[in-house]
Amino acid sequence: MTPATEFLDSAALFRVVRSDDFTGLTLRQRRLLVAAANYHALDSADAEVRLRILIAGPGRAAVLTHPFGDAPPSASDATEAGRIEVTVADAPTRQVERHVIITPDDVTPQPPQLGLRARYWRARQQAERRFPLAYDRLRQTLLSRRERHLSTTVIERASGSEIIEELAGVGPAASSDPVVIVGMHWLELGGAESWAIETVRAVVEAGILPVVFTDRYSEHPFITADLFRDVVVMPFAGEVPAAGIGDEPLRQIVERYDVRGVLVHHCGWLYDRLAWIRENRPGVPVVDSLHIVEYAGGGYPATAVHVDPFVTTHHVISPELERWMTVNQQVPREKVVMAPLVGLTVADGPGPTFSPRPDRPFTIAFVGRFVRQKRPYLFVRLVARLVRAGVPVRAILHGSGELEEVTRERVRTAGLDGVVEFRGHDHPVSGTLADADLLVVASQNEGLTLTTIEAVSAGVPTLSTDVGSQRTVIAPSLLVSRDPTDFLAEATSAIRDLAGAEAERERAWRDELALLEALSKHQAASAWIREEVRGWLA
């Protein structure tokens, strides 16, 4: 039985004392309002919390978890949408006031940056915008050095955590209502995010309430999915330092409910608190999912290795990452499960068939977040080079993210407005793949991309940089260098050949299908996590 009630089409852990009418807000805004109310009600668990709900002014960021009574700076040009009073206490002993600022739906995510950090990133972005190719070459040189270091260095294991001292302990759970704690990056488009959401779905299907914490700034467009009607979400976003953020809500969840498990998906905040959880609930299983070794320090796999004493199972999605964990980092093999994301977003039915090219220009697609790792700038340069080479080409850029504005500017500057089409998260990826003759992965680093699996399953071959475990599913003829200059030369040559020879395109796809079928002999991640979660009900 779920401990949550429904309010504004969302799962709520609080009791509403009084509320204005918020039906004029969009579904995303209403669900973020409830998410913020869940957070503040648990953060001040002995209080009646009076929330002033504001809609952000132009260019302003969301502020969902501002912990003080005074209004954050961005409230000055915000529009009030209403007020709501909530509590989780049977008999509140005090009253507190908080401000929640929610953005309109039609904004590009712009995380707040303050002080020296903001100035550093502005300078770095200006350099990258003016000299993208030179900047990328320098980055590849640094990445190569870090790769060598991470392949030869065993990461030190943690023996404890300062969070244990900062967070008060808890006694036995106050109720038998089962919950699973889930840590995520954000609720946005992406392969890792799609998998994280699938694990949340597995928890819901098992009859357990997921409590999802996200620790990265986002507009959280995926919170509108039907699934999140039955999920408690607490996203962190504000204009104050993050020290201590979320600690009291987490403590309240562990103290009030029967925690049956913990799932960690690219959430540094929750990794930092695993030692505290395991000290207070020693028998709780902790499972993390890992996708990619980030060569700026190792990223989440490095963090996972560091906190390995507090994790019961590491799930990895590729053979390459399995080797890195068990061989390079000496994690016991019995703690590592390799379960690929095959079939995750592909409907059951007949096996994949090749998608013949219709009578139109050769169409290449980029699908993913507009961030530095994915290098949308390089995809735009590739399109421009193909046009100059006389290849009749059309391109689709499908995604969103912090580099969307600059990517659109690059397309305009290159005179490619009539060649490149932009698509957002409101357009299904399956539709983009149906319109494409080739998926292009231009990333500087990856694990094993979900979009590659989706493309091959849709009958479309993929050209990719030789990064991570991509060679597990990419035909040798379509595997290209990640060096930006070499990438442009090799990708242009390969696409020119494919555009003029449909038989070669089909042969490449059949090579990739064979590789995917070999990978699919491993148990699929979706089946594995459902078995795992069902075991938590015992």
Automatic annotation (TrEMBL):
Record key words, sorted: Transferase
UniProt superkingdom: Bacteria
TM spans (from-to): none
Gene Ontology molecular function terms on file: glycosyltransferase activity
A Pfam family annotated for this UniProt entry: Glyco_trans_1_4
Protein's name according to its UniProt entry: Glycosyltransferase family 4 protein
Source species of the chain: Schumannella soli
